[in-house]
Design goal:
heterodimer; A: 296 residues; mainly alpha; 14 helices; 72% helix; B: 325 residues; 13 helices; 77% helix; globular
Chain lengths: 296, 325
């Protein structure tokens, strides 16, 4: 773990990614200090271009875009990290259990995992969200957590299968360690880099998906978030009336957040795989991204 | 053969699972499911039509399992109900019209991005550590971590509005009648270029990263060294020894990516107002047209399963080990 952190500090990609991420986090926490406006208040004339008074202009209803952006970062970060944690937790637990226990338990978990993998994720989420109605960020985070763990299971299961054969597991079994202890204290620490990559990949996925669902009109229009900003800007035909700042600001914010996390993930992978310095486990993460779990 | 049969059985189970979700969702939500699903129909639906819809979705006076079987029966006989917004257009017909556009857009974008991404990934792996590798990897990370919504909107802003190179919506000039004329086909191409380019950018990174990593893992293998030792040209070793073997796992990534492609094309179509499945789904969500939303899940799951099966078939062709089993 310590090795991972010190390795990350020496990796240029990781540092760039971490700095961007940190800036976004700080802006989110310090939102009331950075802006004098309220994100939901009408503080100016509609669709004013960027100026000293309104750094990123105003929306069609005269809200300050910059203020919405930094308050919206809170939502994106909370949903991203909350759902990401849930996805990783479920995926890692099921993956280790399936890989270590084997037999019927493995068959059952594996069957459901494969099934979840072939039902396309976004349409499924859209159906769920459509029945729920106007989904709040919390609801979105929960349904993301409950539906998107499958790739994590597949990855951790495969790795657990190979670790299970190692001598130190055999000796722990001989010593009579209970199986929960073996899974939690012998296997899990060896999966740290995979779990880390899975976690950050899941955060990216959750941030993107929340924004997408909200952009498509399935979110609660009263929340302040980047997805709702996109939704409002699109509904206000921001591009065709020339109010590019209204639409491009959340776009750039989302791109930066996604990019910063992806850089960190790339770096973790380089450190976990010194043989290649590039590649290896990133392939799994890329597949996670591709599994409809990272890119929508 | 038994490999393919097992896959088929699994796909059938997955399709039934998607239908099961459709069946239970309205029933577990608080409130009256019939009210919820058909409320937006208002007075347009006659009692007779409403009853037909209820029957299709299994809302009958019977135990739950009979309702379930009724619903499955409608699904497997191809009856997905009628659209409430475009009443009385059947959902299947509405989706079939849109499917043509989506398949064209998505198919082309997938083939192009898969080919280019795989080649770029192979090149990056072959020259790993060089500046070329860095450029390709960084672009790939960018392409696969920036949301499709964002890429679509930015492309629309730059090429649709700022430069005005491409039209900003529709699949063809609405003034033209669909026909096999040069004018109409030209219009289709002009309207389709920007969404396709967008989808290409969205997809190409994922393929490149997967290929690059598969191939880097293979480069240490003995047969690569052997190929070089025999004095074969760089290009030949790269393409016929390394890339060819690294392609197999990339193919299974392609199967999974189909779901991604569906999601990506969904968003891209909405942004470019392209009349494919994504746009139909978007309109259905806005109107809370539940039969269409549910039908969409089934069609997209079906599409995903079919493309997975095609990949399975090609796997059997590519990997001789599977043919024996």
């Amino acid at each position: 773990m310590q090795q991972l952190v010190s390795g990350l500090l020496r990796n240029r990609k990781a540092v760039i990614g971490a700095v961007i991420l940190l800036l976004i986090i700080v802006a989110a926490f310090a939102a009331p200090l950075l802006s004098q406006y309220s994100p939901t208040a009408r503080v100016g004339r509609p669709h004013q271009p960027p100026s000293l008074e309104h750094w990123l202009g105003t929306t069609r209803v005269g809200r300050d875009v910059f203020t919405q952006l930094i308050y919206g970062a809170r939502t994106s970060l909370a949903v991203g990290f909350g759902a990401g944690l849930m996805i990783t937790l479920i995926g890692t637990m099921l993956g280790i259990i399936a890989g270590y226990k084997g037999g019927v338990i493995d068959e059952v978990i594996n069957f459901f995992t494969n099934m979840v993998l072939v039902v396309p994720n976004l349409p499924l989420l859209l159906v769920l969200a459509a029945f729920i109605g106007q989904a709040s960020p919390l609801v979105i985070a929960v349904i993301l957590g409950l539906t998107s763990w499958a790739w994590g299971v597949r990855v951790t299961r495969a790795e657990t299968l190979s670790i299970r054969q190692k001598d130190f597991i055999k000796s722990a079994e001989m010593l009579g360690e209970p199986s929960w202890r073996i899974m939690a204290f012998e296997i899990f620490p060896n999966l740290i880099s995979i779990v880390g990559i899975n976690f950050i990949g899941s955060v990216i996925f959750a941030v993107i998906t929340e924004a997408t669902l909200e952009f498509l009109g399935l979110g609660d229009p009263n929340t302040v978030s980047w997805g709702i900003m996109l939704y409002n800007a699109q509904n206000a035909s921001a591009l065709s009336v020339g109010a590019w700042w209204d639409l491009l600001s959340p776009c750039i914010a989302l791109a930066l957040l996604g990019l910063s996390l992806a850089l960190i993930n790339f770096a973790i992978d380089e450190i976990a795989n010194p043989r290649l310095r590039t590649g290896g486990r990133l392939g799994r993460w890329a597949a996670l991204v591709q599994a409809g779990e990272g890119r929508l | 053969m038994s490999f393919l049969l097992r896959r088929l059985a699994f796909y059938l189970a997955a399709f039934i699972a998607a239908a099961t979700i459709n069946f239970f969702l309205p029933r577990v939500m608080p409130g009256d499911p019939i009210q919820m699903m058909f409320a937006s129909a208002g007075s347009e639906l006659s009692l007779e039509n409403l009853n037909a819809l209820k029957l299709t979705f299994g809302f009958i006076e019977a135990p739950l399992w009979q309702q379930y079987l009724t619903y499955l029966q409608s699904v497997f006989t191809g009856d997905l109900g009628v659209s409430i917004k475009y009443f009385p257009l059947p959902v299947t017909e509405l989706l079939a019209r849109a499917l043509v556009w989506t398949v064209g857009l998505m198919g082309l974008a997938t083939i192009l991005s898969f080919t280019c991404g795989t080649l770029l990934g192979a090149l990056a792996a072959w020259r790993r550590g060089t500046r070329l590798d860095t450029i390709i990897s960084m672009s790939a990370i960018f392409s696969s971590s920036v949301p499709a919504v964002v890429i679509s909107l930015v492309m629309l802003f730059i090429f649709g509005y700022q430069l005005g190179w491409f039209p900003s919506g529709y699949a063809a000039d609405p003034m033209l009648d669909p026909a096999f004329s040069a004018q109409y086909i030209g219009s289709v191409i002009r309207h389709g270029t920007l969404p396709m380019l967008t989808l290409f950018i969205v997809l190409v990174g994922g393929f490149a990263v997967t290929m690059r990593n598969n191939m880097i893992n293979l480069l240490g293998e003995d047969y690569i060294v052997m190929g070089r030792a025999k004095g074969l040209g760089e290009g030949r070793v790269m393409l016929w020894y390394a890339a060819r073997n690294a392609l197999l796992p990339t193919f299974s990534a392609l199967a999974i990516a189909i779901g991604t492609v569906l999601g990506g094309s969904l968003v891209t179509e909405v942004v470019f107002n392209y009349p494919g499945l994504g746009n139909v789904l978007y309109q259905a969500i806005l109107a809370r047209d539940y039969p269409v939303i549910q039908g969409q899940l089934l069609i997209m799951t079906g599409a995903m399963l079919v493309s997975n099966f095609i990949v399975d078939l090609s796997y059997v062709l590519l990997d001789p080990r599977l043919r024996k089993a």
